[in-house]
Design a protein that fits this description.
Layout (H helix, E strand, L loop, with lengths): L3 E4 L5 E6 L20 E3 L15 E4 L5 E6 L3 E7 L4 E7 L1 H5 L2 H13 L7 E4 L9 E2 L1 H9 L4 H4 E3 L15 E3 L1 H12 L3 E4 L14 H4 L6 E7 L1
Parallel strand pairs: 3-4, 8-12
Antiparallel strand pairs: 1-2, 2-13, 4-7, 5-13, 6-7, 6-8, 9-11, 10-11
Length: 226
């Protein structure tokens, strides 16, 4: 199918992120996200966005229900439990990451399905990379106060020195890929694929809100039980 960046997770699950020219192969459930920590279980394959207002993570154990999160620089996390046959799609912008949304989702999967974190297979999809995610001191402080390993996720690149080629040169930079990988590892997940694709630097293939503006299109990050 055109324009799909596919993930090889396991035989029992299908997962992908859409590129700019993508055509969805089937109906995909998409929440209306608000950078919060609300988690919703989806059991009906034709659930609408209007039914998922204010939701930033979806879970299901129903085969054939394709769940997703929408991103355009934020970090998508897709989870698969091969033992209890359950999946999750998580929208982790910096706010969701600071609030440890991925860990909350794992806890909810454990409560509903009996999921054990060590059994999970995880994908961290395309999102803004550390070289492009320049932040203010308030964002750095939020991560530090939340207990993240700052020596692993923070880089001080000196005074801001924007150029036409690199508007994000200099300043403070947070590695959201590593921050979310660390959250998963702290929860007990070890099987983690990190795409390493920066949406800001690859906006010819993927949408980037920071480069294009908040009204740009969105990447659909989908996972479905076969």
């Amino acid at each position: 199918m055109k324009g799909l960046f596919r993930y090889d997770i396991a035989p029992g699950v299908e997962a992908f992120s859409t590129q700019r020219d993508a055509e969805l192969p089937y109906y995909v459930v998409q929440p209306h996200q608000v950078h919060g920590v609300v988690i919703k279980e989806v059991t009906e394959p034709m659930t609408t966005r209007e039914q998922l207002e204010g939701v930033d993570a979806l879970i299901t154990n129903v085969p054939g229900v394709a769940i997703s999160v929408r991103t355009a620089d934020c970090i998508p996390v897709l989870l698969y439990d091969p033992v209890h046959r359950a999946i999750a799609a998580v929208h982790d912008g910096w706010r969701g990451t600071v609030q440890r949304l991925s860990q909350k989702v794992i806890a909810e999967m454990q409560r509903r399905y009996g999921t054990v974190a060590g059994d999970l297979k995880a994908v961290i999809g395309p999102g803004i990379g550390p070289e492009s995610f320049q932040v203010g001191q308030e964002v750095v402080d939020a991560f530090a106060e939340a207990g993240f390993p700052m020596d692993q996720i923070l880089t001080d690149c000196g005074p801001k020195a924007p150029t036409e080629e690199n508007p994000m040169a200099g300043g403070l930079h947070i590695d959201l890929w590593r921050a979310n990988e660390w959250l998963l590892q702290e929860a007990g997940v070890s099987d983690i694929q990190v795409s390493g694709i920066c949406t800001y630097r690859n906006n010819d293939r993927f949408f980037s809100a920071r480069r294009e503006g908040a009204k740009c299109g969105r990447i659909i990050n989908c996972i479905k039980l076969r």
